[in-house]
């Protein structure tokens, strides 16, 4: 899928403050979930083997990783009790159609997750959920934003096409959008997706963060578009956290609390 460039301009503020202390340089060597993935989709948990994704979305081996325990740092949003202020974002072409709720029976690593309904009807569609940080911007310089996502039902009916997950942030004076689209690996389990905030215009000025869900391009092996259209998808979202926010001395705690911005 060739994703159109998206720049969302939000109101900015003169009051700048760091929500988490800056990470000393050079200490982002590993991840909480295993070896770094390879390819343009960013570094994530343990790499998942698979074919390359469609244009604009990295394949599962390019960043999405399977889970292996708790969070290394306290979560920005772990949805242990409620939706923690998340709301449907300004999606590309499904604005006003995304629905969210809280579910207490599923989650990773602990029960409690955001349940997101995205009414896909075709390829090249997307819907997102995000959290606004309010009047005080966050300094996430040197960090990587993680989120865990599980496709519960629906989405792409054709297994040969990739559905996408894109963690993102709005950063800089113009609150520019920066994201890292990655393909959903085969299977129905929880997977980790990562945005390296070094890709953002200015990670010292983050005004919002979230995750975008993409129906994919539908490209098939013959160079055409699959005749099997995507359908309403129910997607579970959990465990937004910042890799590096605990510093080099982090001992790998489960980070299950609701510590946030």
CATH class categorisation: Mainly Beta
How many runs of DSSP E, i.e. beta strands? 14
Number of helices: 0
Regarding quaternary structure, what we see is single chain
Silhouette? globular
- Helix fraction, binned, reads under 10%
Q: In the CATH hierarchy, what is the architecture at level 2?
A: Sandwich
The CATH topology is Jelly Rolls
What is the radius of gyration computed over CA atoms, rounded to a whole number of angstroms? 17 Å
What pattern of helices and strands is seen along the backbone? EEEEEEEEEEEEEE
Please indicate the count of domains: 1
| Percent strand | 25-35%
> End-to-end span in angstroms?
33 Å
CATH superfamily: Galactose-binding domain-like
Description of the molecule:
The structure is a single chain. The protein is an all-beta fold and 261 residues long. The chain has one domain (57-243): Galactose-binding domain-like (Jelly Rolls). 0% of the residues lie in helices and 31% in strands. It is built from no helices and 14 strands. Strands 1, 2, 3, 5, 6, 8, 12 and 14 form an 8-stranded antiparallel sheet that branches. Strand 9 and strand 10 (176-179) form a beta hairpin. The model is unreliable at 1-56, 58-63 and 249-261 (pLDDT under 50).
